[in-house]
Amino acid sequence: MAPDTLNVPLPPDLVRLGANPVGKEEAIREAAQLLIASGCIDPAYADSMLRREGVANTFLGHGVAIPHGMVEDRDLVRRNGIAILQVPGGVLWNEGQTARLVVAIAARSDAHIAVLRRLTRLMQDEERLAGLFTATDPAVLLAALSEDSALPAATGPAVDLAERFEWTVDYPTGLHARPASVWVETARAAPGRVQVRHGDQTADAKALVALLQLGLRMGDRIVVSAEGADAATTVARMKAAITRLTAKEQADAAAAERKARAPVQGWTPPTALLAVAGVGASPGLAIGPVHAVLSAALTVPDRPESLIDGGNRLHEALNLTRQQLKALADDTARRLGPSEAGIFTAQAELLNDTDLITRACQLMVEGHGPAWAWHEAVESGAARLAALPNPVLAARAADLRDVGRRVLARIDPSLRGGTLRDLPDTPCILIAEDLSPSDTAGLDMARVIGLATAQGGPTSHTAILARTLGLPAMVAGGGGLLGVANGTPAILDGQSGRLYLNPTEADLAAAQGWIEEQQLRKARQEERRGLPARTRDGHAVEIGANVNRPDQVPVALSQGAEGVGLMRTEFLFLERGDAPGEDEQFETYRAMLDALDGRPLIVRALDIGGDKQVPHLHLPHEENPFLGVRGARLLLRQPDLLEPQLRALYRAARHAKPGALSIMFPMITTLTEVETLRAVCDRIRAELDAPAVPLGIMVEVPAAAVLADVLARHVDFFSIGTNDLTQYALAIDRQHPELAAEADSLHPAVLRLIRMTVEGAERHGRWVGVCGGIAGDPFGAALLTGLGVRELSMTPRDIPGVKDRLRDSSLTALHELAQRALACETAGAVRALDGGAAGEGGAP
Fold first, then answer.
1. Does residue 9 carry a pLDDT above 70?
2. Side-chain half-sphere of 843: how many Cα atoms within 13 Å?
3. Of 123, 290, 301, 642, which residue is the least packed, with the fewest Cβ within 10 Å?
4. Using CA atoms, how far apart are residues 45 and 61, in angstroms rounded to an integer?
């Protein structure tokens, strides 16, 4: 064996098959004897290996243990080596842990990491690993522990796998996080290996960080290859996924280019002011004092613990952070849009990166604590990304650090950042070295009126979110920005990227005048948004917004919302470690009603299950949560969740204007569920002497649509969740990487279920609303109106376009459009009916 590497074939005399040690100590000494006999270690190193067991657990899991010596005893290693002890019958390692493969490691430096990487990859192939436990040929074990085929190539020419295709990158900004996450999702659906090669560099297509570190740019030639079962199918699916993104990437780049070339309508101060120059990231003017949030260097203490305990803590932290990011992405999608939500979906994909997790595990095996090991793995990965020449890819280092700190806070709550919670009560221009995307998305817009960062760039996710939020922002202001004293009066111009300091009265007056002029222009635009969605022939459709928190109501109203058609109460339970009590829920519902000032509010009872999980509720694991205990099924099984929420809602109803509040229940399938829930509502209302409120149900499963005429006798209204109804009607998981695009809510089968629901409701004088995705699509809204839907609720930003489409249509034309759509045979044929705004006699 070479002196400084373990990346060479193992000699057969370092493998012992069919061993039967009586305990862990004997197993370690037997494996150590193989290393001693081969000249790898001094005999005293065996005792060092046993001492290691006293301070750290070397059981990796899946039947594999990796005993090795203490760091301070590395001088007892004569040359690097490993020995393999196969124990088919197993040997008790620690309580509840049985080792069947003992891999003893002797290494002077970090050469053993290659073996650890192979072992962690083997653990992902349980069938092959199980074969090693009973193999009768040493060559099988030698090959598994010698080969690096599953790892990025370290030396020599890169080799493609069995099935392959070549592609020239035609994404204008190269391969960045959001398209890369689609590649990863597609690759992970494949049973075998999937690889991307650029020149002599290769990356595991199932690892997001590895893909980004290729630094792929427009025009780069790559080879995507696969091996294993269905390799040809895998390659075809990868090709389809990769090329399908081209049009969107090119359209996004073209839109950005048009925006960059647009004439600058900025502001010029009337006097010569001292200014800090940066790069404009989000247009607009902000006037106010600055408040600097200086980020202290994060020091993560290294607190070693047993490998099992540390591994469990890291595993739990990763899972909790995935749930947190899912909630954040869902919330961002509804507030800001799906493109912005994709930022957090891509961040969540970083948590599935095998290289990142493997590195953290390796550091824990070496004796480091989980928090320190995770932080080190994240920082090394972020440093490699930051060094890439492509600025778009280099900016992803901030995303990796952002998601890394989320996990870190879960491992050790004392490492949780809190600087943004210490903002002054009066509005300020926030100055920071940099802000993470999640920090930006969560800014309190009542306290932060502008944003200026020393680092970052206009293509960063933080800049994208600032533009979507309408928050004036500049980036790349440099170190001098951080020297501005707190409380300094300033004017921030997010268009030109200038922070003007200590403005005169004349400057303040000019800036205020410019702001008022822009507000007047915006008011003229919003005037049309405030008009009702009334068709040319006088039919009115109620337009609501999907809103989760009271502070989101003003934005919804400014976009033309006439109320809140869907308040998702699960967001009161997410992003926290415990369930909110009755009083906390009451205050939130009352604040929502106050913000709406008599306008309608429809509150959906807690909808947990499916893709929305709340870790602190400790619900049992389900193999198929979409078909399990979710929505009303969960509420009926857990009165401790249902009854405090209903009590809080009925308490809020006592303070509301008559008719302002309605309650609806999710995931209804049977009449029994409706009758039971209504009985609970009646009991709680009587106990509180509260007014009656309308009770409705979500129509999300075909059974509810088919039984609409029966259910309508027992409820006051229906609200159709078209996303779930489509998923259940077409038997397609709407998050499936390959099939999601086929889950089209304009499928004729879905439209017929909607029409069936409307007809059943009309028999008993009930109204039907839609709060799913197609309500916010102008063409979809036109179709729904033609089908008889009376209320539409959507993301606030979609309201103006929907209102315009309906105002430019006639109800007669919409009815005709709906009938043609119902007669179509495919979703594509339905979409082909979209001809723009309606004429008097034609389709809209």
1. no
2. 17
3. 301
4. 24
Sheet holding 15-16, edge to edge: 15-16, 81-94, 97-106, 64-65, 59-61
Among residues 413, 401, 396, 441, the alpha carbon closest in space to that of 316 is found at 413
State the average pLDDT over residues 223-232: 89
Give residues with Cβ within 8 angstroms of 114, minimum separation 6: 5, 6, 7, 148, 151
In angstroms, the Cα distances linking 343 to 177, 211, 486, 717, 800 are 8, 17, 31, 36, 25
State the pLDDT at residue 148: 46
pLDDT at 630 over 90: no
Q: Cα–Cα distances in Å, from 161 out to 117, 165, 223, 580, 751?
A: 20, 10, 10, 52, 45
State the catalytic residues.
68, 176, 461, 771
Residue type, 263: P
pLDDT of 289 > 50? The answer is: yes
Roughly how many angstroms between the first and final C-alpha of the chain, as a whole number?
76
Mean pLDDT of the chain: 81
**Rounded to an integer, what distance in angstroms lies between the CA atom of residue 53 and that of residue 26?**
13
Q: Give the neighbor-by-neighbor strand order of the sheet with 285-293.
A: 275-277, 498-501, 489-493, 285-293, 428-432, 448-453, 473-475, 279-282
Compute the radius of gyration of the chain from its Cα atoms: 30
Query: Cβ neighbours of residue 633 under 8 Å, at least 6 residues apart?
Result: 609, 667, 669, 673
Q: Per mean pLDDT, which range of 309-318, 436-445, 606-615 is the poorest?
A: 606-615
Residues 6+ apart with CB under 8 A from 164: 223, 224, 225, 226, 235
Residue type, 426: T
